[in-house]
């Protein structure tokens, strides 16, 4: 049997932009992506702390150490600049493997999205 578990989580990060006219996705600072073990094109769930919206999109790489978290395309309608969101990705694992799996969970600085 296989189950889905949290693979990566960026907890409480500030939205720096929302670009309705861009192809849909979420742009994430490359440093945050690396620390959270996310890759470009990976499917993620977004939870907006400010308004309760939950939706899915995919990741694109933002400038390293920029703090960028931009929702693009239709997802831009579900957030506003300065909203606080949680970004979550999942992995499908065998049940026994899932019991010992340890996800990558980050708690960035909410002021500037830095890891320090």
TrEMBL record:
Binding site for substrate: 57, 73-75
Co-factor remark: Binds 1 pyruvoyl group covalently per subunit.
EC category name: lyase
List of catalytic residues: 25, 58
InterPro entries for the chain: Asp_de-COase-like_dom_sf, Asp_decarbox
Record key words, sorted: Autocatalytic cleavage, Cytoplasm, Decarboxylase, Lyase, Pantothenate biosynthesis, Pyruvate, Schiff base, Zymogen
EC number(s) from the headed UniProt entry: 4.1.1.11
Gene Ontology terms, MF aspect: aspartate 1-decarboxylase activity
Post-translational modification: Is synthesized initially as an inactive proenzyme, which is activated by self-cleavage at a specific serine bond to produce a beta-subunit with a hydroxyl group at its C-terminus and an alpha-subunit with a pyruvoyl group at its N-terminus.
Main location class: cytoplasm
Reaction catalysed by this enzyme: L-aspartate + H(+) = beta-alanine + CO2
UniProt cross-references to SUPFAM superfamilies, sorted A to Z: ADC-like
Family per record: Belongs to the PanD family.
Subunit comment: Heterooctamer of four alpha and four beta subunits.
Function: Catalyzes the pyruvoyl-dependent decarboxylation of aspartate to produce beta-alanine.
Protein name (Swiss-Prot/TrEMBL): Aspartate 1-decarboxylase
Lineage: Bacteria, Pseudomonadati, Bacteroidota, Flavobacteriia, Flavobacteriales
Designated gene of the protein: panD
């Amino acid at each position: 049997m296989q189950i889905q578990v949290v693979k990566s989580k960026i907890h409480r990060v500030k939205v720096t932009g929302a670009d309705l006219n861009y192809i849909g996705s979420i742009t994430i600072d490359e440093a945050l992506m690396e620390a959270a073990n996310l890759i470009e094109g990976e499917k993620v769930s977004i939870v907006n702390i400010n308004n309760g919206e939950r939706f899915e999109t995919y990741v694109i790489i933002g400038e390293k150490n920029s703090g960028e978290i931009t929702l693009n395309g239709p997802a831009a309608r579900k957030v506003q600049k300065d909203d606080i969101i949680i970004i979550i990705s999942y992995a499908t694992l065998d049940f026994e493997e899932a019991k010992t799996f340890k996800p990558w969970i980050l708690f960035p600085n909410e002021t500037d999205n830095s890891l320090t």
